[in-house]
Amino acid sequence: MFPTEFEFVLPKGYLDGEGNLHRHGLMRLATAADEVMPLRDPRVKANPAYATVIILSRVITQLGVLEDVTPVVIEGLFACDLNYLYQFYRQINELETELSSSTVDEPMIESFNSAIPTETAQLEVG
Asked: Each residue's pLDDT tens digit in the chain (126 positions)?
């Protein structure tokens, strides 16, 4: 068996409405549904970049002590944390090498490339 969930620590962290900081979390491997289902969402149809928000909310299974990681939580992340999670997502799902030579349109990548700088952080998957 191979690992399907990976721990991460956000560079800054998510500040909830009560001022609590949430930095430690878990992200699971993405499924085809995680990539396809957001395309049906009206928010994605209006703004394709929003697919990233929905996809991350589907694959992050834990963030601090939050009960749920919703699109609203992802919207509230600092830009550096969003970029970190995007890069982490790509790394654990092994998308870097597979998509670099591919011509397949992939919603997460397409929408994110237009919204986030190309600089990446060094990540270690544990």
From this structure: 989 999 999 999 999 999 999 999 999 999 999 999 999 999 999 999 999 999 999 999 999 999 999 999 999 999 999 999 999 999 999 986 544 444 444 444 454 544 443 343 444 544
**Residues 91, 123 contacting (CB under 8 angstroms):** yes
> Listing from the earlier edge strand, what are the strands of the sheet with 5-15?
5-15, 21-28, 60-63
Residue 32, domain member (yes or no): yes
Domain assignment present for residue 46? The answer is: yes
Amino acid at 82: L
Tokens of 48: 């394709």
Domain membership flag for residue 122: no
Total count of domains within the chain: 1
Q: How far is CA 62 from CA 57, 59, 68, 120, 126, in A?
A: 10, 9, 7, 23, 16
Q: Could you tell me the residue range of the domain that residue 69 belongs to?
A: 5-113
Residue 39, amino acid? L
Decide: helix, strand or coil at residue 26.
Answer: strand
pTM above 0.90?
A: no
